[in-house]
Amino acid sequence: MPAYRSAAEAEIRDAAIARLRELMPGCRIIHEINCASFGPNRIDLLAVMKDRIAAVEVKSERDKLDRLPAQIASMKGVAHHAIAALHEKFLTPWKSSHFDLPAFHEPEEARHAVVWAYPVRPRAGILGEWPLRDRWEKPKLLPPPDFIDLLWASELRSIVRKHNLHRATSGLDMPQMVDLLRWGLPGKTLLAETCATLRRRNCIEADPAVDAP
Q1: 161-171 pLDDT, tens per residue?
Q2: β-strand partners of 92
Q3: Strands 81-87 and 53-59: what pairing?
């Protein structure tokens, strides 16, 4: 475990990784990845399949939620599924005659994300099962708007060259290459290229690289 990661955070992170592997068999887990090469936020966990990406922000009992809305917005820009794995101290209990189990409100800061409450224990509604309610079962999902921003300049350049989108790439900056890729490739192809690149990227902390075609 890296020195900067507390035991409290690692416990929730490990549980989130185990759940991602159940939901996304064959995914590659990457830790601490920038949501954009120039972006302000770093994603705690990224799970990458050949055509789908899930992002997780972990908040232990030692954390605060003040940055969570911005982090969720960044995750939703690059991932099909944005998940907030939160310690249960951030939940607000409420009473309801419709449930036999204790019921809880999700924190306002976690709006627009799927919430996984930790420890996993029986609770009313979605907080007790660690599901993905965010259209998870749909066989096809529209790609998130900014998924290409997960790529580095060298990776963008490699894809531009592979598809012969420009005669010379050495003088192109990142916005120019992004424009070429968005205009020159169908969304399905661009998503597949992005996922394949992330699955084989050499990362400091991640599952072994996958040589996806």
Answers
A1: 999 999 888 88
A2: 105
A3: parallel
**Rounded distance between C-alpha atoms, residue 183 and residue 165, angstroms:** 9
Peptide bond into 131 cis (omega under 30): no
For residue range 58-81, what is the model confidence (pLDDT) as tens digits?
999 999 999 999 999 999 999 999
Instruction: Give this prediction's pTM.
Output: 0.91
Segment (H or E) for 190: helix 187-200
Q: Domain-by-domain residue ranges, the chain?
A: 7-128, 147-200
- Eight-state DSSP code of residue 206: B
d(CA 114, CA 126): 9
Interatomic CA distance for residues 45 and 169, integer angstroms: 31
CATH architecture of 7-128: 3-Layer(aba) Sandwich (3.40)
- The span from the CA of 102 to the CA of 94, in Å, is 8
Question: Are the CB atoms for 86 and 113 separated by under 8 Å?
Answer: no
Contact 27, 51 (CB under 8 A): no
Strands 81-87 and 114-118: parallel
The conformational region for residue 30 under phi > 0 = left, psi -120 to 50 = alpha, else beta, is: beta
Beta-strand ranges (E) seen in the chain are 28-34, 42-48, 53-59, 81-87, 92-94, 103-105, 114-118
